[in-house]
């Protein structure tokens, strides 16, 4: 069952995963940068402000994984790190409230800020964003009669992320627009209150990385998978064709006008091995994955566009190399 | 100091070294190993994170003739080139995609 082209494949058999017999692993050949650039391709499949899908083709798994890890834990973003609580008479505890606030994604562009020094006592306009949140729940005086709905009875009974107010420090107001700083989503419920409950907080947001705390991670998910491939080895028609179709994700197997099954698009196959359950069709198919074709899925939290996050991640790796090179050059 | 040399190789010449990287892990270790392992003159190259609670990565290089330090530097240069190329290609593709 050898497939003719040069792609390295992993074959998904019933109980095992196998490499092709002539495949000795991609890390076997000598390193050659020219060869790498010749083989390496990037294809962008889907992209908007929050989500993107792209393919890295002909790359080592070590690099693909490094890029993924960098996006998750080393690309910086801004998040609320300190909450000064002047008054909190709501039922949610101070520390739980502070934690909840920390997880709210902020729109502020981390590239325009610096990391706060470890020994710094206070923030400056270059490394800190300050918000205040002052909400008091009261009885709604103009409530309609006979209503028991909280929305009618009380004012401010739900506190949302949109109620935090930016307090520009120093020159910040002239550099940043208010619309570019606050929370990504204004409808995140922070707390519920009843008349007499009150929140009076000041929030301090700083720049950080996901390694320190997941709230600083700029991505909701960043993952990759290998490109699935389905190959038909013989003709399958009639009832068997429908059976074959039902073994895969929708859209993977098509049936033509003569009732013959064909592989339409295996890209979004789940790679389940359902075919092996049926003796009449299990010999008609080869399931495989292309070992050097990585399908990346990057979902941004909202501060940076997903394509910017990827570039930032690679830049971080590049800068690391540069700084280590500088240091090694100082070695004897 | 972000990089230091692990003691113990004083008698084995310049071709065997273990470097200790502070605040680094599999991200850098595996990518670098992947390149250096494929150099002509390298006998052995591997990395380890000795303990998950310590932010350290040990990187071992053994070569036939070339000093290990030189190999390590070359590895960083090549990894930097890979990054540079990836950034350029990716930004070109994004531009193309946005044109459509």
Automatic annotation (TrEMBL), chain A:
Gene Ontology cellular component list: RNA polymerase I complex; RNA polymerase III complex
Give a GO biological-process term. DNA-templated transcription
Q: Alphabetically list the UniProt keywords.
A: DNA-directed RNA polymerase, Nucleus, Transcription
Q: Name one Pfam family in it.
A: RNA_pol_L
What compartments host this protein?
Nucleus
- Listed InterPro entries: DNA-dir_RNA_pol_30-40kDasu_CS, DNA-dir_RNA_pol_insert, DNA-dir_RNA_pol_RpoA/D/Rpb3, RBP11-like, RNAP_Rpo3/Rpb3/RPAC1, RNAPI/III_AC40, RNApol_insert_sf, Rpo3/RPB3_RNA_Pol_subunit
Q: Which GO terms describe its molecular function?
A: DNA binding; DNA-directed RNA polymerase activity; protein dimerization activity
Which Gene3D superfamilies would you find in this protein's record?
DNA-directed RNA polymerase, insert domain, RNA polymerase, RBP11-like subunit
Query: Where does the DNA-directed RNA polymerase RpoA/D/Rpb3-type domain lie?
Result: 51-327
The similarity comment for this entry is:
Belongs to the archaeal Rpo3/eukaryotic RPB3 RNA polymerase subunit family.
What's this protein's name? Answer: DNA-directed RNA polymerases I and III subunit RPAC1
**Biological source species:** Spodoptera littoralis (Egyptian cotton leafworm)
Task: Read off the lineage from the record.
Answer: Eukaryota, Metazoa, Ecdysozoa, Arthropoda, Hexapoda
UniProtKB/TrEMBL annotation, chain B:
Pfam families referenced in this protein's UniProt entry, alphabetically: RNA_pol_L_2
Write down the InterPro entries for this protein, in alphabetical order: RBP11-like, RBP11-like_dimer, RNA_pol_Rpb11_13-16kDa_CS, RNAP_AC19, Rpo11-like
Cellular component GO terms, alphabetically?
Answer: RNA polymerase I complex; RNA polymerase III complex
Principal subcellular localization: nucleus
| Subcellular compartments | Nucleus
Q: Which GO terms describe its molecular function?
A: DNA binding; DNA-directed RNA polymerase activity; protein dimerization activity
Domain DNA-directed RNA polymerase RBP11-like dimerisation, by residue range, is 17-87
Q: Which keywords belong to this entry?
A: DNA-directed RNA polymerase, Nucleus, Transcription
Biological processes annotated in GO: transcription by RNA polymerase III; transcription elongation by RNA polymerase I
Keyword Lipoprotein attributed: no
User: SUPFAM superfamilies, alphabetically?
Assistant: RBP11-like subunits of RNA polymerase
Q: Which family does it belong to?
A: Belongs to the archaeal Rpo11/eukaryotic RPB11/RPC19 RNA polymerase subunit family.
State the protein's name: DNA-directed RNA polymerases I and III subunit RPAC2
Q: Which organism is it from?
A: Spodoptera litura
């Amino acid at each position: 069952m050898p497939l003719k082209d040069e792609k390295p494949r992993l074959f998904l058999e019933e109980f095992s995963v196998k490499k092709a017999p002539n495949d000795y692993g991609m890390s076997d050949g000598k390193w050659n940068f020219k060869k790498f650039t010749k083989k390496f391709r990037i294809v962008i499949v889907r992209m908007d402000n929050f989500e993107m899908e792209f393919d890295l083709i002909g790359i080592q798994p070590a690099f693909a994984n490094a890029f993924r890890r960098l996006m998750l834990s080393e690309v910086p973003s801004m998040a609320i790190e300190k909450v000064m609580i002047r008054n909190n008479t709501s039922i949610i505890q101070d520390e739980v409230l502070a934690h909840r606030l920390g997880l709210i994604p902020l729109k502020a562009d981390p590239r325009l800020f610096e990391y706060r020094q470890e020994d710094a006592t206070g923030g400056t306009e270059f490394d800190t964003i300050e918000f205040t949140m002052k909400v008091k729940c009261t009885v709604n005086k103009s409530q309609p009669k006979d209503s028991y709905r909280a929305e009618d009875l009380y004012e401010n009974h739900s506190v949302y992320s949109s109620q935090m107010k930016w307090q520009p420090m120093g020159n910040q107001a002239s550099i940043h627009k208010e619309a570019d700083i606050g929370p990504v989503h204004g409808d995140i419920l922070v707390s519920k209150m009843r008349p007499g409950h009150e929140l009076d907080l000041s929030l301090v947001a700083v720049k950080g990385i996901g390694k320190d705390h997941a709230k600083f991670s700029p991505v909701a998910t960043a993952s990759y998978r290998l490109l699935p491939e389905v190959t038909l080895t013989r003709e399958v028609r009639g009832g068997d064709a429908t059976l074959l179709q039902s073994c895969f994700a929708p859209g993977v197997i098509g049936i033509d006008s003569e009732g013959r099954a064909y592989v339409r698009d295996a890209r979004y196959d789940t790679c389940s091995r359902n075919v092996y359950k049926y003796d009449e069709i299990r010999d008609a198919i080869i399931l495989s994955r292309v070992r050097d074709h990585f399908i990346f899925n990057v979902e941004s939290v909202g501060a940076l566009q997903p394509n910017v996050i990827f570039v930032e991640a690679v830049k971080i790796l590049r800068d690391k190399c540069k700084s280590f090179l500088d240091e090694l050059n100082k070695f004897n | 100091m972000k990089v230091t040399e692990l003691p113990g190789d004083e008698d084995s010449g310049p071709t065997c070294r273990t470097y200790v990287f502070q605040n680094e892990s599999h991200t850098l270790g595996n990518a670098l190993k992947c390149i250096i392992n494929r150099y002509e003159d390298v006998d052995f190259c591997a990395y380890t994170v000795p303990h998950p609670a310590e932010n350290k990565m040990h990187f071992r290089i053994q070569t036939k003739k070339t000093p290990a330090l030189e190999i390590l530097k070359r590895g960083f240069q090549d990894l930097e080139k890979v990054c540079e190329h990836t950034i350029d290609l990716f930004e070109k593709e994004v531009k193309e995609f946005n044109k459509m």
